[in-house]
Description:
Blueprint: E1 3-7, E2 11-12, E3 18-25, E4 34-39, E5 46-51, E6 58-60, E7 68-73, E8 78-83, E9 92-98, E10 102-103, E11 107-111
Parallel strand pairs: 2-11
Antiparallel strand pairs: 1-3, 3-8, 4-5, 4-9, 5-6, 7-8, 9-10, 9-11
Amino acid sequence: QLQLVESGGELVQPGGSLRLSCAASGFTLDDYAIGWFRQAPGKEREWVSCISSSGGSTYYADSMKGRFTISKDRAKNTVYLQMNSLNPEDTAVYYCTLHRRYWGQGTQVTVSS
């Protein structure tokens, strides 16, 4: 059974960092690109980043460039999203997805002092 499970979200102060994880089961990440989205309260879900099946290509939304880094650990079948220089506007539930067809349950990131 294909499954994505996010973790790593928590309360962090402005300027802080977090690393989110997206653990995959039921399929091999080597075969698929994975994306991260986020949804803030009262807002549409927005695309954050994605990584190619090989891990050799990565893409970011403009507001995340230079602050977020997506990576893939084949041995752990897990995709990570390293987030630095967080600000309150980054507060949202973060989701990973396979082809926007399969979604995890999300992990809450709250940036607040």
